[in-house]
Amino acid sequence: MKLKVLTGAVLLSFVLNSAYADTPLLMEGKSSIYQRVLTTPSCRLKAKSDDKDGKVVDAFSRFYVYADDGKTLKVGPDDTGKISGYLNKDCTIDWKMQTALMFTNPANRNRALIFKNKENLQNIVEAKDPKTLVDPMMKKVAAKENVDGVISVEPEHFVDYQKQFYLLPILDFEETMFDDGNYVRELKIASVTKQDGKKVNVSNEQNELKTFKAAVVFVIDSSISMQPYIDRTKETISAITKTIKEQKLSDSVHFGLVSFRSNTKATPGLEYTSKIYVKPGEATDEKQFKEKLNTLNQAKVSSKYFDEDSFAGINTALEQVDWSNYGGRYIVLITDAGGIKGSDKLSSTGLDARELKVEAAHKGVAVYAMHLLTDSGKRNGDHEKAQSQYKELTYNDTINKSLYYPVNAGDVKNFGKKIDELANNITNQVKLLAFGKDAVGAAPEVPADNENAQMQQDTVALGHAMQLAYLGSKLGTKTPDFLSGWIADRDLISHNQATSTPVVLLTKGELSSLKDVTSKILDSANQGILEPEDMFNQLRSVAVSMGRDPNSINKENTLKLGELGLLGEYLDDLPYKSKLQELDEDTWASMGPDEQNQTVEDLENKLRYYQQCNDDASRWVKLNKDEDASEAVYPIPLEVLP
Q: What global pTM score does this model have?
């Protein structure tokens, strides 16, 4: 009898252990997020926990933890119950937040330093004059000398994660403030890459830059009243194409053109909303361009609104042009009207300036706006709103400013000078590179009173950034080898310049959940415009349907939306501040109609952007080659989270 009891106990223990083995361990304090670790180069995946050795695994592979005995981890590639084997715990890194850091382009700013300890970084952040501390460090970095307290430095050339995905997981963070009042995130990161030992020298760089190509795509409004600007743009393309051919640069500088109008369902006579007339590389001489652009003329009928669907034109240029062959990537928007908002029923994309700015940055494209301040725009009270839209659309993080250039009174002659100069500046840079010269600073000096001087300076700065990105791609620039340290996400001297962008790596399931919840919040917000109380009552019901305890969701008007637990635990600890999470019923009720409507429009735009991310198969990345496809992740910038 005693034997039977023991056997039953053993059997029960086996059954329980088998059941729990199918589910990874939960993170402490979480009810839906499993423990995850990243491997370091010393990790070996063992078949049994007490094996002395095992097979090599790729550094920074992500594993889910199924059991932890203090020394060894039982791990699997995903949360489906599949077991890969065992890892020594001391070779792994806990990854509590599935967040990572992506470097911005280092052109026109100081390279980021990675400090051994948080205190080393904090001393600089708190300094009255950080420049006196940082300048000597940067001089030593340039001379390839060791710097006390610094364990590594950002690569000299830009690393394009789309071509060479790298993982800089964020392990911890703190938001603090420089002495001058600018905010900064201090981030603890880890890094590892495979180094191939390829030696890079000036000769290598010059040879690679000789193959640098640039594409300029004009995105032009072709509604009624735009014919003079259409003709002048054609003239610019014709003239610059002739010059390029004479200088034997036809293979190096390509032009394209996209035209846009407005919604054809509302006004069928417009013929199209956006249309590509020529892609970069399809026409390389004056005759070919004339044939391609022969039918480009202004519309024969008026659109329903004064605003046109300029965002459709930008989206077409971003999505239907193959930018991968070009180091220099430019879009030039030409219009006298604002863009139809993404939330408007006549919008063909459902996207606004913010989402398109993020998409342009993702593709490495600089967007310029030539805003024609015509009398008709003034009569329609459109200038100020359009300026706000296009400044946001064209904001370039690399040079830390908007590439927005107004043309007073819509003067055709003035406009012509601007696009001529822009096209010539870009072509001149590529010409210098073709002869093995660095184009940075090589443009002819422009008198200070020349109104196009700023545009030329911006284009030179952008050209330098694009060269660094191109070199990084061609020379295989990698992030530093394995390390763990602290980095600031802002330039330690020029505090308004970002050195890096934190992203959250969402799985397909998490992105789908984010879409669904954002949609529910949007529905409730639309209802709440009429009755604020209805919005939060509806959201409480949604929270209960998702498993929240009704007693924990009280009726107080100060209960924040984030406290309802709608947006998922994976957003709780991220290094960003969510306006939506902080919203409560009293605050919503105190908002004016315009602010409430803007909140709704922002949610609508984010929802459409999530759908676009979900549909783009090329951007999903596996962090473990053996994991289920559903565990692939997508890097979502924090700025487009709710």
A: 0.61
